[in-house]
Amino acid sequence: MLLAPSDPKILARRDSIVAALKKIVPDGVVEASSDLAAYESDALPSYRQKPLAAVLPRDADQVARIIRFANEAGVPIVPRGAGTSLSGGALPRGDGILMGFGRMSRILEIDYENRCVTLQPGVTNAAITRAVEGEGFYYAPDPSSQIACTIGGNIAENSGGLHCLKYGLTTNNLLGVKFVLPDGQMITLGGKAPGAGGLDLLGLITGSEGLLGVVVEATVRILRKAPVTRTMLASFDSVPDAGACVAAIIGDGIVPAAMEFMDRATIGAVESFNAPGYPDAEAILIIDADGVEADVADAMARIAIHVKACRGELREATETLARAKMWAGRKAAFAAMGKLAPDMICMDGTIPRHALPRVLEGIADLSKKHGLGCCNVFHAGDGNLHPLINFDAMKDGELAVAEEFGADILRLCVAVGGVLTGEHGVGIEKRDLMTEMFSTADLDQQHRVKCAFDSGGLFNPGKVFPTLSACIESGHMHVHGAKLPHPDLPRF
Amino acid sequence: MTRVASENEIVDYVRAARESRTPFEIVAAGTRRGAGRPMGKLPVLDVAGVSGIVEYQPEELIVTARPGTGLAELKAVLAQKNQCLGFDPVDWTLFGGAPDFSKNGTLGGAVSADASGSGRLRHGPPRDSLLGFRAVNGFGEAFRGGAKVVKNVTGFDLPKLMCGAFGTLAVMSELTFRVYPRPSARTTLILRGQAPEAGFAALRAIWKSALEPSGLAYIPGAADFPGLGDVGEGAALIRLEAAARPLQEKIAAARLLVGPAEELEAGETVFARVGEGSLFRDNDLDVWRVTVPPTQAARVAKAINAALWWGDWAGGLLWIGAREEDAPRIRALAAQAGGHAMLLRAPAARRAALGLYAPQPPALAAVTASVRAAFDPLGLFNPGRF
Fold it and tell me: How many domains is chain B built from?
């Protein structure tokens, strides 16, 4: 993937841009090259680029003023929460302003009677649950980066987690936002009352990867913690048996709170990493059931029948400690990859569950073809597959091979009726694969929606869409400053 | 009227309409035609024939159907596999007088009108269930949004926009939903003799619990709602669902929270009436759906002081039957409370004057118009309806 070259005309104006930002946020502009290194990449570290400058606003008014300035000056903006994106969503532009939300991190209101929390975008995901768990509530979406990632980033990426099948992604748990549009105007979408009262723009901006504007305040739904949660671990001698078991459980009307699949390679890696005591098997499932006591007992009994029918072995855990141990291996799966190779890419396709055996076989074949190892973990309930490709970036050309391997996996996911990304976002990583999944007409429609918000193309340019053509409306081009936006970007 | 039966035929029709700059009305069963701004006499595109279930995979929790598919038909097919649609689609029978009412409402109509009943409380409105769609935009191009898997963040989430758009963005040709297991047992508890404040507070006590209720409605005694018996000042209705044995545990837990609620035989019928607005069928009141933060329900209902009203969604929704002169007060109260007042039924002149929703603030109205133009720049689809 080639990074867009910086526009020399913008670079030449760097001093005046920094001065303008300092007028808006006197104590929050980062300009020294050594300090900007902190922002040069997110959790997709293969791509690095220092921004022109970083600005750290303290409130919505400063955000709006920064955006109005950038809009008038024609400078790209890349929003950033905690920088935990796995798809390069917060990768800076060399000729752009990086807007960090770390200082907008206050919880503004906890409203138990309306079951919601209103907060600034820089609050971390885990902090929401921490703030309300004393009263027995929690915030459901739980991406694995939840101790670091922020709600603003979660909204931009429509983050998921282990419990999506039952409790939904961010979009299903977000009630409202205050949102600054690319022209600097602020709008309010949704709120504590149900319904949009107009087009569901809240649903549209959720998961829009920073291309349509920025969230400056959010109201999220909180849930009462289930009184009982139990965990079981089922092991299988074959992947198809494990896949059949997942289908049988779902087909029986059970929606487990979580259901995670790990293949033999992953089991081996985590055993040598933190020894959770997993059985020797081709595949294991870790399943959480939650609810009232009788609900959980009923679900566990039925799950046990399906596991047995699919020739699986079962272990159960009711105590908190035993449950934590069962989960320890799965939660350490990404870290355990360090035992296998110095570097790792985590892919994120979703497939129809029935295609799992075929896709895993296909991945094994691709692993041979590309000569790189791959471990598979899988949110089995919702079909979201995380192949973990192991490689060594210090070896010449291996990053490129790993990326090609990843792209082949995603092509396979699309070929069986799946999608490129279930929860990590397209970002820069999967941008050039969008045409595998969408036709020209599909992408044109999305592009027109982008233009409806950001006709100048200044918000997170270079992400999500493979081609960047000028905004066209009723046959007319939006031309800014007598030139097309981003003439520097390669057009395919 | 032009009848179409396939996406290709929709494409042909839209291209011709585009060519001749002729806006048109999109109709399937026509059961919701009375909602929204009147559009005057326009050519009608009848999409009822774009129907049928395309693909149903119970183990994947996914069904794909064309928008003209009848709600009743789809519900029956899902029920055979013990599944259901999560958004509890309803037909608004309050439009009883409409000529086409004998027809069964369609899936596309329910999605376009964002018509969900009491069950919305558990699995959310249509936007939480619609995973993907195909449609024809105002450029005459067939396109897709979303996908046919339950978890997907690839590209913009266009399915959200289709829900509640009243057909103003595109002519839909295929819809893919996430489906849910149908609980094997369900019951309704009734708490009688509740003034609005106390009744809504009881509903919120259940809503804030881990009991996952699938209906929380408040009916004031003055509504004289059939099937409830004598309710005194009013009744709080609590619908719970689970497998048979867990249901008993949920009932016991609910009683611990709200006191001695009785099981109500007619619960299913009552909740159907609540969601369909059927009590408005035989009067000529203006009908409003007012959404508010649940804690505001009793206060707003009292301030509106309507002739006939009830609450649903734990207080998040108020059904209001009102007179012409109440309109400004209803809109103002809804806005003050941070909610929305949708004018669902009224004589044409009033719908023309008031619109489906109150006017939006300028910046929001501008971006909404831009999004519309991104789909339908010539304003061909249901122009002005919403």
Answer: 3
Q: Which fold has domain A107-224?
A: 3.30.465
Architecture of domain A341-425: 2-Layer Sandwich (3.30)
pLDDT digits (tens, 9 = 90+) for A164-217: 889 999 999 999 999 999 999 999 999 999 988 899 999 999 999 999 999 999
Chain A contact probe: residue of B143, B153, B245, B331 with most A CBs at under 10 A: B153
Q: B145 and B195: one domain? A: no
**For residue A249, what is the nearest residue in chain B, using CA coordinates?**
B59
Do A197 and B342 make contact, defined as CB atoms within 8 angstroms?
yes
The pLDDT tens digits of the residues spanning A56-91 come to 999 999 999 999 999 999 999 999 999 999 999 999
Q: Minimal Cα distance from B315: which residue of A?
A: A193
Q: At what angle do helices A440-453 and B362-375 cross, to 10 degrees?
A: 160
Q: How far apart are CA B315 and CA B235, in angstroms?
A: 13
Regarding whether B103 and B197 lie in a shared domain, the answer is: no
B169 close to B375: Cβ distance less than 8 angstroms: yes
Check if B19 contacts A (Cβ < 8 Å). no
Q: Specify whether B79 is located in the same domain as B43.
A: yes
Q: Å from A285 to nearest chain B CA? A: 17
Answer whether residue B190 is part of any domain: yes
Let me know: does A94 contact A50? Beta carbons within 8 Å: yes
pLDDT digits (tens, 9 = 90+) for B324-354: 999 999 999 999 999 999 999 999 999 999 9
Question: A240, exposed or middle or buried, with CB in 10 Å at 0-12, 13-18, 19+?
Answer: middle
Decide if B378 is inside a domain. Answer: no
Other Cβ atoms within 10 Å of A365 Cβ, number = 12
The architecture that CATH gives domain A8-100 is 2-Layer Sandwich (3.30)
Q: Distance, in angstroms, between B46 CA and closest chain A CA?
A: 23
Q: Which residue of B has its CA nearest to A250?
A: B59
CB A21 within 8 A of CB A66: yes
Partner A contacted by B358 (CB < 8 A): yes
B201 shares its domain with B346: no
Residues of A in contact with B367 (CB under 8 A): 181, 187, 201, 452-453
Instruction: Output the domain CATH number for residue B94.
Output: 3.30.465.10
Q: What are the residues facing B85 on neighbouring strands? A: B179
User: Out of A199, A438, A448, whose CB is closest to B165?
Assistant: A199
Where are the CATH 3.30.70.2740 domain residues in chain A?
Answer: 341-425
pLDDT, tens digit, for every residue of B365-379?
999 999 999 999 999
Distance, in Å, from the CA atom of B143 to the CA atom of A444, rounded to the nearest integer, reads 9
Closest CA to A283 of A309, A310, A305: A310
HSE-CB of A17 using CA atoms within 13 angstroms:
26
Residues B330 and B319 grouped into a single domain: yes
Q: Do B149 and A383 touch (CB under 8 A)?
A: yes
Of A192, A350, A420, the CB nearest to B338: A192
